[in-house]
Design a protein that fits this description.
Helix content is 45%, strand content 9%. It is built from 17 helices and nine strands. Helix 2 packs parallel to helix 3 and helix 16 packs across helix 17.
Length: 403
């Protein structure tokens, strides 16, 4: 696609920006449009993923057919099958008549499934069948129906991670991602931020007969330095609010209103510490051991280590056999804060003789028991300890075997 064709495409679908990653996404969409390949559009919420399936449909051989956009995350789990595949009269409470689903309605056209990662596992199996054979069954029916639909999916989550966690079918993932298209986040399109702001502000001013606004250089710098977690959707909201509150009614003598960085800063959200992405493992409030309990456990480890050292000294004298230093298991390191992690003990006093690391089975058992007592169930205890339920079950069994 040459530059002239790319500009024409952007004008047709009201797309603003010159970012290379954006241009590449648009070029791929046009290239695969004439085929029937399934496409998976990935990107954060608010980056404009909905433009891609619309472009693909308009440039495909199905452009005269119907086009439906379905937000899988907005449909309750109990009704998603009915929405997608339809239902028979009386198949459930409230089904007062037969209803055709989106796959039936879109026959010969294109179906855009947004937030595909929110689709329940049971519905994923049915979707896979439609993609493979074009066959589906209405809810409450046993009759197999056929459809010819081009499916385009979009997600704002990492589907491969969801596959690893068992929340998304691996076979469906590979079926959907025949052609992957990644839409870049707004913070990755620095040069496009001001262009988009001017477009949104100008459109708002035209619709509401307001004077156009212009940003000073320092205001443009402030605009581009913000991280825009809500992406284009958030930028549009800010541009329209600034236009509404800082501009004036259009009059014959009015040209434009100049906005400085000081004025614009009132409309740019502040990066509060509790809203920034965290680097450490997320724990819900109240789901981890408190500081007092952590301190008690650390002290118990040192005390138990000293007691064992004294016993070994009494038994072996000065001929204590040497063993390599031993680390806490990773799951225990995760429970303790970094400054509380214990890898080996060097005695209660500085300069004490060389001592041996302690086997931590007893401490492990005590930690597990305390977590179970505190939270009352294994699921919550496992979460607090930073391990899976399966690992916790195995450790509990090992505790019972050692009794």
């Amino acid at each position: 696609m040459n530059e002239k064709e790319l500009i024409s495409l952007k004008n047709r679908f009201d797309i603003v920006g010159n970012d290379p990653a954006l241009n590449r996404a648009l070029e791929i969409a046009v290239a695969v449009a004439p085929t029937d390949l399934t496409v998976l559009v990935s990107g954060e919420s608010g980056v404009g993923k909905e433009n891609i399936p619309n472009i693909i449909h308009q440039f495909s051989l199905r452009r005269t057919g119907k086009y439906f956009a379905v937000n899988c995350g907005a449909i309750p789990e109990g009704t998603i099958d009915s929405e997608l595949f339809g239902h028979e009269k009386g198949s459930f409470t409230g089904a007062i008549e037969m209803r055709r689903g989106y796959f039936e309605e879109a026959d010969g056209g294109t179906l855009f499934l947004d937030e595909i990662g929110e689709l329940p596992l049971a519905s994923q199996a049915k979707l896979l069948r439609v993609l493979q054979s074009g066959e589906f069954i209405r809810v409450g029916s046993s009759k197999v129906l056929k459809t010819d639909v081009r499916v385009i999916a979009a997600t704002n989550v990492n589907l491969m991670y969801a596959v690893q966690k068992g929340k998304f079918r691996e076979d469906l993932y590979y079926r959907l991602s025949a052609v992957p298209i990644m839409m870049p986040a707004l913070r990755e399109r620095k040069d496009d931020i001001h262009l988009l702001f001017r477009k949104f502000a100008s459109d708002f001013s035209s619709r509401n007969t307001r004077a156009n606004i212009r940003l000073t250089d320092d205001a443009v710098a402030l605009l581009c330095s913000y991280r825009w977690p809500g992406n284009i959707r958030q930028l549009k909201n800010v541009a329209e609010v600034v236009s509404a509150l800082e501009s004036v009614k259009m009059t014959p003598g009015t040209e434009r209103v100049v906005i400085s960085a000081a004025t614009l800063s009132r409309y740019i959200p502040k990066d509060e510490p509790n809203t920034l992405p965290v680097l450490s493992r997320k724990q819900d409030e109240g789901s981890s051991l408190n500081n007092e309990e952590k301190e008690m456990l650390v002290k118990a480890i040192f005390q138990l280590k000293q007691d064992v050292d004294h016993l070994k000294q009494a038994v072996f004298g000065n001929n204590v056999p040497a063993r390599p230093a031993e680390r806490l298991p990773q799951w225990e390191e995760d429970v303790l804060e970094p400054d509380e992690q214990v890898f080996e003990s060097h005695g209660a006093e500085e300069g004490a003789g060389e001592s041996l690391p302690l086997s931590l089975h007893d401490v492990n058992d005590d930690l597990i028991r305390k977590a179970l007592e505190k939270y009352g169930n294994r699921k919550a205890a496992a979460k607090a300890l930073g391990i899976s339920e399966r690992t916790l079950y195995r450790k509990i069994k090992n505790m019972e075997d050692r009794r």
